Amino acid sequence: MGRRFRRFVNVTAVTAALLAAGCFKSVVTYTRYTAAIYNQTTESGPYSRARQIDSYAYYVDTAEWRVASYEDAVDRIITNKTTGERRSVPDVLGAFNSSKEYSMSMVLQQALSMIVVVNPELKLYAYRSYELPENLESVATKLYMCSWRRTYASSGWVVVNQFYVEPETPEETSEDGGEGGAA
Fold first, then answer.
1. I want to staple 122 with a disulfide (CB 3.0 to 4.6 A). Which of 99, 102, 117, 147 is the partner?
2. Backbone torsion region of residue 123, taken as left when φ is above 0, otherwise alpha when ψ lies between -120 and 50, otherwise beta
């Protein structure tokens, strides 16, 4: 009976030690979100690294909040889609370092974020919803901002081009150089 008791005590001690070790395991509760941001000004043109970027995040859901205009994006204002409430103080401000490939960075610490990137060079802004992963210290992603396109979605981002103008096609111009169409 002594052997069984010692075996029981040993198994219990090992189990308790394993459980205690699990209790003290380090858990990461933030993510350093970085992005390499590229500009493209013509449909088949080259991509170049963005030279100016402003970025920020609010701890809100994009299903409930939106950026209403380019001016609001520049002013860091978001609007509630239901109530019309406006917020102008982001929860997180991003940093931009044009000498790094992943030039935009911010530290996110809440379960859900709305990340906004403003590109004053192209007069575009982009936003996305981001769910904080468990135990992932850093994320590196890329964002391609194309001024020649109308508003579009790409890799989780919505890139908004409020100033997009449809290019004229030869049929739209009459022989005398004026606008075609019915009067």
1. 147
2. left
